[in-house]
## 1
Amino acid sequence: MTPSPAPPPLLDLRGVGRTYRSGGAPLDGLKGIDLTIHAGEMVAIVGPSGSGKSTLLNILGCLDRPTRGTYRFKGREVARLDAEALSALRREHMGFIFQRYHLLPDLTALGNVELPGLYAGQQRSARRYRARALLGRFGLADRCHDYPNQLSGGQQQRVAIARALANGGELVLADEPTGALDSRTGEELLKVLGGLNQDGHTVVIVTHDPAVAAHADRVIEMRDGEIVSDRTRVRGDGAPTPSPALTVSTERPARRAAAAMERFFSAFMVAFSAMRAQRLRSVLTTLGVVIGIAAVVVTVALGDGATEAVMRNISQLDGNSLSILPGYGRGDRKASSIKTLVEADAHALAGHPYLDSVTPEVNINTVLRHGSIAVESAVGGVGDQFFRVRGLPLIAGSLFTADAVRRLEQEAVIDQVTRDVLFPGQDPVGGILLVGNLPVRVIGVVERPVSGFGASSDALKVYLPYTTVMYRIVGDSSLRSIIVRVADDVPLDVASAEVTRILTFRHRVKDFYILSSNEFKQNAAEAGRTLSLTFGILGSIALLVGGIGVMNTTLVSVTERVREIGIRVAVGARRGDITRQFLVEAVLLSIAGGLLGAVLAHGVGLVLNTYQITDYEVVLSAKAYLVAFACAAGTGVLFGYLPARRASCLDPVVSLARD
Ligand code: ADP
Ligand code: MG
C-alpha cells in the first residue's frame, strides 16, 4: 500500500493582511499573518480588544477578504472565488457562532436551525428532522417552537451552535461565544464546543478571556494585528475521528427546481411577516400604490368609455352621409359670407341615383316659448328627408311632408328633451309653440339625436321646414349646409366626387367643401386616442408616485434589517436569495396595492355610472384590470429592484457589526 500524499491543511494563510480604508488614514487590522490550521484542531485566538481577532476570524470564515496575501481553504485559493462560490463555501463547510447569538427574531428555534439547510437546498423533511435532532442533542428538544426572545442567553447560544452544525459544520468559527453569558453558562458552552471538537469538528474560538482559551489545545495570541505566540498542548487521545455529523452536506439535496421553489416560498413568508411587523408603514405605502392603480384603472376606463361613446354616436350617425358646407374647408372664416349654397342645389342633387335622400339645413338659435316657459334653443330648418338622413325615429305624431316644406308650413317636430322641458306632463302634439315671434304647431316628437363630439348634450332640438326658417324667420335664401345620404351600394368617395362635380358645375367655382361621415369617424377615433393617452399619462404619474413610495419603504426595510441580512449571508444565503427576498416584499406590497386599487377603481366606476356623473358609461373592462395588475407587479419589480440589489451587496461583516 503506497502512502497517500498528505491532504492539504484545512486552512492555510500566507502573509495575509487586511487594511481598512474607511475614512481617515488607512488602518492595518491585520499585518502579514502566517497561519496553518489542520482538520480536527481546537484553536483559541486570544489577545486584547482591537488586536485583530475578529478581523482574522471573518477572513477565515470568508465573510471578509484579505487585502493582501493568500488564503487557501482545503488547498483552494479563496481570492479566486466569486461571491457565489464563497457563499457555497460558507454554506457547506462553515458554521458561525457570534457573541450576541444573532438568531433571527421572527423565526422559532427550529426555524433558525433549519435556515442553513434551506439555503443549501435540502428537502424540507430532512432539514426539519436534522434540526430537531440537533436541538435535542443540545437539550432543547422541548424549546423547538420558542422564539429567541423566549429563550435564555445560554439557550439562544445553544440554538446558534445547532444552527452552525445544520449543514455539517466542518469548521466552527466562534467569536467571543461566551462574552454575553455568565461564567457558569459560559463554562457549559465551552464543554459543548469541546464535545464538538471530540466529534471531529475543527473549532476556532476567538476570545479575550484566558480561562476560555484554557479549553483549547492550541492558543494563538495576537497583538496589533500580528501573531505574537502560537502554543500547542499535546493531547493524549490522538487524532479525533470524523463524526457522522460531518457528512451531512453530502446528503442528496432536494431537486433543484423544488429547492428553488421552496426558497421562493420562504422569501414570501419572510416578506409577509416583515409586512405584518410594520403594519402601518405597509398600509401607508400600499395606499400610494392603491391610489396610483386606481387612477390608472379609472383613467383607462374613462378613456375607453369616452371613445366607445363617441364611436357609438358616430356609427349611429349613419355610416354613409356627406355634409356639404359653404367655404373652402373647415375653419374658413369667410364661410358665413358665402351665400352660394342654395335650395336649388339641394333640388339638383335630390333625384340623383347615387343619393338616397337629401336635406338642406339652416340652423339658428332663438327663444322658444310655450305658456310661461321660455328657453333658448337651437332650431334646425331641415327638409322632409332630414329624419331619414339622420335616422331619427318618430316617437309620437307625424313628420312634415315635402308639401309642407314647399308651402312654408308653420309646423315643428321636437325631440324628447324639448318635449319634457316645454310640455312637462302634457301631450305636445297639436300644441302651439312660439319660435322667436313665429307661432308653429307641434306635429311630432322624435328621439333625440346622438350628440356629436363636443356638442352640448342637453341642448334642445326643434325642427321646422327649412323654407319656413329661411323665409319666415331669417329672411335669407342661402343654406347652412346640405346633408345627403348616399345610396347603400355606392361608395362614399364616388358619391362625394359626383356631388362635387354637380355643384362645381352649378357654381362655376368650388366654393364649398364636403365632410364625409368616414372623416368624422377618423377624427373621433383620433380624439379618443388622444383622450386615452392624456388619461394614461395622468394615471402613470400617480402610479410613479406610488412606486417611489414602494422603493422608499423597501429601502427603509433594508436599512432596518441590515443585521438580518448579515446573518442570512453568514449561514449561506446567496446574493440571489437576498435580492429575491426584498423583491418579493416590494412586489407583494405593490400587488396588494394593485388589488385594493382595482377594487377602489371599480367602486369609483360604479359611482360614476350610477349617478351618471360623466356623459357616458365608464367602461370597467377586463383590460383595465389587467393593466392594473401588470402595472402593480411592474411597479414592485421596478422600484423594488434597486433596494433589493443594495441589500444583496451589503458587506456581511459590516452588517453583523451593526446593532
Ligand atoms: P478584536 O476583535 O481583536 O477586538 P478587530 O479585529 O475587531 O479586533 O479590530 C482590529 C482593528 O481593526 C481595530 O483597530 C479596529 O478598530 C479596526 N477595525 C475593525 N473593523 C473595522 C472596520 N470595519 N473599519 C475600520 N476599522 C476596523
Ligand atoms: Mg472582536
## 2
Amino acid sequence: MNGLFITFEGGEGAGKTTVLKSIMETLQKQGKKVMATREPGGSAIAEKIRHIILDPEHNEMDARTEALLYAAARRQHLVETVLPKLEEGYIVLCDRFIDSSIVYQGVARGIGVEEVRQMNLFATDGLMPHLTCYVDIEPTIGLKRIEGHKGREYNRLDQEEIDFHFMVRRAYQKLASEEPTRIKTIDGGESLESVVQHTYHVIEQFLNKGDC
Ligand code: TYD
C-alpha cells in the first residue's frame, strides 16, 4: 500500500470536520493526491447503514447492534472507498474511524474497549490509521458551538446527556495517552484558525518524517 491514511477524531463540536476540509484544500493546492471521506458513510451502502444508525426515531437500538452496524459501515467504506485510494498512493483524510467506536461504543456505551477493538480489527482486517489527529474540546463548549449550526443534521447521538460527552472526552484522552505516536492531540478550544494551523503542522511533520 503506497498511500497514507489519516483520521480525524473528536467529540461533538470539536471542529474536526471544518479542519479536515481546510487541510484537504491546502494539500490539494500543493499538488498532492488527496481525498476526504467520512464515517459512518463514505460509500453508498455505508451511507444507508449511517441512516439506520443515526435515525433519531431508532431509540430502541441495542448498544451491540449499534457497534456492529458501525463496524459493518466501516468495512464497506474501507473496501469500496479507502483501500483503492490508498493503493493509488492517495493521502486519505477520514472524518472518524475505529477510535470513534472504541470511545463511543466501547467506553460511553459500556460494551468494553477490548471487545469493540477486536470486533473492529476483524472489520478492518487489522488496518489502523497511520496518523490520527484528535481535536480535543471541553464538551459544554463543543455542544454550545453546534447548537447554533442551522442545517446541521440532528441525529440520535445528539439526544445523549452531557455525562455521555464527558465520558467520550476522557476516553479519547486515555487512548491518546496510550498511543502517543499515532494519536496527536490538538487543542480544539483555540480559534478555528489556530486549530487548522496546529493540525496542519502535525500532518506536515508526519509527511516530512514519513514514519509512524
Ligand atoms: P456526525 O453527524 O457525522 O457527527 P460528527 O460531525 O460529530 O462527526 O455523526 C456521527 C455520530 O456517530 C457522532 O455522534 C459519533 C458517532 N459515532 C460512533 O458512535 N461510533 C463510530 O464508530 C462512529 C464512526 C461515529
